[in-house]
Amino acid sequence: MTIDHIAIVVKDLEKTIELYTATLGFRQVYREIVADQGIEAVGLEAGDSIVELLRPLDESSPVARFRGEAESKLHHTAYRVDDIEAALAAYRAKGVRLIDERPRRGAHGNLIAFLHPKSTGGVLIELCQKSH
Ligand code: CO
Known about the structure:
The protein has 132 residues and is of the alpha+beta class. The protein is built from 3 helices and 8 strands; from the N terminus they run E-H-E-E-E-H-E-H-E-E-E. The longest helix has 11 residues, at 13-23. It starts with a strand and ends with a strand. The site of cobalt (II) ion has 7 residues, from strand 1 and strand 5.
């Protein structure tokens, strides 16, 4: 299992980009609005993986409420799978609770689906299939 990205929801996106690039030395590889998820996403290269900073477009959204007053908070870990439909079916068969019964479109045109944290030890897990 490969980590595709870890996503951190932040309060001040510009300041956090500055921190990660100018101070910590990450390279920014994309920045996009994902309207479907109500977020702006900034991807920072971390080897073969990405650290993704998330800014909620709406401060009353669940993602913003999850972050609360924190400056930033780890939101989810995403694992890369070759066949997301097959992975979802396999997890469903093992009794894993799914947030997304069907894959949907995520940042970068990838197909994604979230597993329910009640089934994953409290950490939100995303499955991610690369668009080809
Ligand atoms: Co994600």
